[in-house]
Every structure is written in structure tokens, then in C-alpha cells.
Hints:
Elements: H1 3-39, H2 46-60, H3 65-88, H4 92-103, E1 111-117, H5 123-131, E2 134-140, H6 143-151, E3 157-164, E4 168-169, H7 171-177, E5 183-191, E6 195-198, E7 209-212, H8 214-218, H9 221-225, E8 231-234, H10 238-248, E9 253-257, H11 259-265, E10 268-271, E11 281-288, E12 299-305, H12 312-322, E13 326-334, E14 342-349, H13 355-366, E15 372-381
Helix pairs in contact: 1-3, 2-3, 10-11
Amino acid sequence: MTKLEEARAKINAIDEQLVRLFLERLEVSREVAAAKREMGLPITDPARERAILSHVAEEVGPEYENDARLFFSTLFNISKARQRVLLKGDSPLVRTIQAARAATPAHFPTRAVVAVPGVEGAYAQQAASLFFRFPTIRFVDGFERVFEAVEKSDCPYGVLPVENSAAGTVAAVYDLMCKHRFHIVRALRLKVNHVLLAVPGARLEDIKTVSSHPHAIAQCTNFLKSHPAISVVPGTNTARAAKELAASGCKEAAVIASRACAELYGLSVIAEDIGDAAFNYTRFICISKNLEIYPDANKLSLMLTLPHHPGSLNAIISKFASIDVNLSKLESRPIPGMDFEFRFTFDFDATPTDPRVLCLLSELSLDPEIEHFVFLGAYAEN
């Protein structure tokens, strides 16, 4: 036996002891939970946790202090999570998810009334036509109007952009998420091809201003840098900018939009494929007021606020890793009125039928240290 094999044999023996002690600790944790229930005590005892961590730090010494604190903090989190399940059972969230799955039809609808930001020709309109085979589209002015139309039941569904592969997150949509009641029921990635449009007869060398949505502008920075004489004017929507240009007839202005807008509004393409990235995709979500979970759901999203202390975010991320769930997106947005505190949105690849995922959701929704928890939905992404 080599020295490496001898060392590994020792590690294996120690691991076996750790497993036995771990299981023994979980059993004792059950007794603790029962005692707390009888005495009416809370699950979390910060003073005891601090005392144990202080004692452990002294025992292991300065060299291993941080590692020991991480190890025991993880044990505390596991123990508290188990105690919550024992004392409270499945959370209301899990029951809500199960009820939604039972009540949702087997197939996503092909016909629906859909709130879409902008005007005809907008990329969101293209996304809506992919979500629904026969959509009845109601155009609204801005992202918040989409949320309001769904929340007030004016439209059963709404379509919103949430991120772009080149320009990143659509921050305005994420900031609005915390203000409205909604659920994500579908998502897709739309290939975006930006062109420069102008009124017929205009030439590129004549253009003095370019207008479009800020995200579209951000996706075409290389083209705009190559034409420094052109001023950039942010607009509310790519298609709306095209419509307004057509109405104005100005030959010194141009817009960044889709090729579809050229035909819709009688404009000419004066520059092709002006986006920075050849593979430029925008991710759109379809939202509804009520929770709908279709059988093909393969992604879940949630929003939460964590306590402002070291390790709080890492503790949450480690829970996903422990059940082998991939976090596909983690977005943080500042909380208005709070001093450098943030609200986090998690997207992860999983199914709402996985018992491990339901257990994690139950644990997170019951955790009193998570100050604000919202389940955004379980849905299919294409």
C-alpha cells in the first residue's frame, strides 16, 4: 500500500465515523425539536449558536478557525431546517404548488389575450406569437402596464423581456417584480437581429440621430462607436421608435429595430446586422395572475431578501448545490429606501415534482431568517 493509499484509508475510516455521528446528531435534533415544541421555544437560538462557534474556534485554533465555523454553521442550518419540517410539516407553499399542478390543464393554451409592451413590430410581440399560436395582443405603454393588466385581470397573460445575452438584465422589469402580484408560466429565448431603419431616400451619411430602446442601443455599441457623429436618443420601445420616425418623415434620423418594422412602417434598411453579437438572444417571460404549473415545467424562479450578514447568500446557494440543482441565474437588485441591501431572484433548473426541490422550497419558505420570500413560478423554457 502506497502512502497515498494509507492516507486515504485513514480518511475513509474518519468519514465513516463522521457519517455515524452526523446521523446521531440528526436524531438528537429530533429530540430538541420535540422539547422546543413542548416548551414553546423558537427553533433558532442565536445566543447558543454564537457560544458554540466561539468554543469551536478556541478548540481548533487560529489556523482552522474559519473552516470550523463554516462546518458548524452548516450543521446548524441543516439541523434547523429539519426541525422546521418536524414541527411545521409541509409549508403552505408546497400545498399551493401541488394544488396548482392538479388544477392546471395538460397543455399550454394556444389562444389567449396577451398584454405586450410597445406597438406592432416590437420584439415582445414576436415573443407573444411564439408563446401562443393565436394570440389576441393588447399593446400597452411600458413594462409596468403589462404587470398592471395581468394583476387587474384585464389580460390573463403578459409578455416581458428580462435579459439579453449581450446587454444583460432588463433592470426595470426586475425592479417592478417586487411591486406586483404575478407568476411566470412560460419563458423563451428570441433571436434578435437589429438593423438600422430610416425613411426612404435617407442615406447613412445623412443620419444625425439614432433612437431606440436603451437595451437595443446597448446591443449595438460597436456600430454606434464607428459613427461618432451620430447622437443617440433613448426611446421607450424599438417598434414605437420606428413608428414615430415614419410619421415624422425626418431624413436625418434613424432607429434601431427589427427588419419587420421596415415593412410595417414603410422604412428602409440602411445598415444590416448592426448588433455587437452574432448570437444575440433576448429572454422573455410570460406571466399570469394565478399560479399555473404545466406538466412540462423544467425551471423554477423565486425572489427573496436575506439578512445582511456574512455567509447568508452562500448558505442559500449551498442548499441548491446539495440537491444537485443548477442555478441558471442569480440577480440582485437594490431595495429602495434600504442602505445597500438587496433582493435576490433565483432561476434554477428543476421540476416541481422532485421531492428534494419541494423540500427545499418548504424549508426556504418557512425560514424566519429569510425576510421576504416569493415563489414566482414553475414553467417550461424553450
